[in-house]
Design goal:
By secondary structure, the chain is an alpha/beta fold. It has a single domain, classed as Vaccinia Virus protein VP39 (Rossmann fold). The chain has helices at 9-16, 30-51, 77-82, 94-107, 118-122, 143-153, 169-182, 199-208, and strands spanning 65-69, 86-90, 112-114, 128-134, 154-165, 212-213, 217-222, 226-230, 236-242. Strands 1, 2, 3, 4, 5, 6, 7, 8 and 9 form a nine-stranded mixed β-sheet that branches. Helix 6 (143-153) links the parallel strand 4 (128-134) and strand 5 (154-165). The longest helix is centred in the first third of the chain and has 22 residues, at 30-51. It is globular. The two termini are 33 Å apart.
Amino acid sequence: MSTADSINPDEAAFFGRLAADWWNPKGTSAMLHRITPVRVAHIRAEALAHFGLDAKSRRPLSGLSALDVGCGAGLMAEPLARMGSATTAIDAAPENIEAARSHAEGQGLGIDYRCIAVEDLAATGAQFDLITCLEVVEHVAGRDAFFAAIARLLKPGGLAVFSTPNRTPASWAVVIAGAEHVTRSIPKGAHDWNRFFTPAELAEALRNAGLNPTEPAGLSWRPGRGFFIGGDVSVNYFLSATRA
């Protein structure tokens, strides 16, 4: 496992222990399976608007390179590849990368999975048109190093899309008390509420790294509707950023 500043070894080991169950929609990653379709739709819409892509295309990301940071077992990397991008995906836990490779091979998808830290990947000079970083920043150790590496990995004119829980009483009630302790749709102990970013804090971190954040979009849930994108950022939100 890398000793890069951004990686928290305990966090990587925690999620690595879940690798074998990651693709089970009723298992420890049940919540991720429920929100993935909404994530994919939002990222697709952001990419279409930013790059001026064809909304009618079945593979609208063709011709673009994409990087999924903190990919787990590939729940976002696989849709990115299916949308046509040349996809690279990285994670700090080797168990996750092994599970991701195995699943992608079974789906006939050619995804470049690597067990590597963002700093180490950035040091290679690699750059990408589109970067996704979903439910990751709250687990990062060296935050300044992490965001600086993301900025180096993003091509000029590129787009990065982040998602993360907000640090509010509502997020504690929903994510910690509800999802971790009551419904168990998120593994117990997966989050430290004190390390959640508010939208303003995440936007500041991105600006400090040389990126230009846009307005956040909230991820919400309502009975009878399920998960959807809206203006309520009190529990979880997306924040996109560009590089000039």
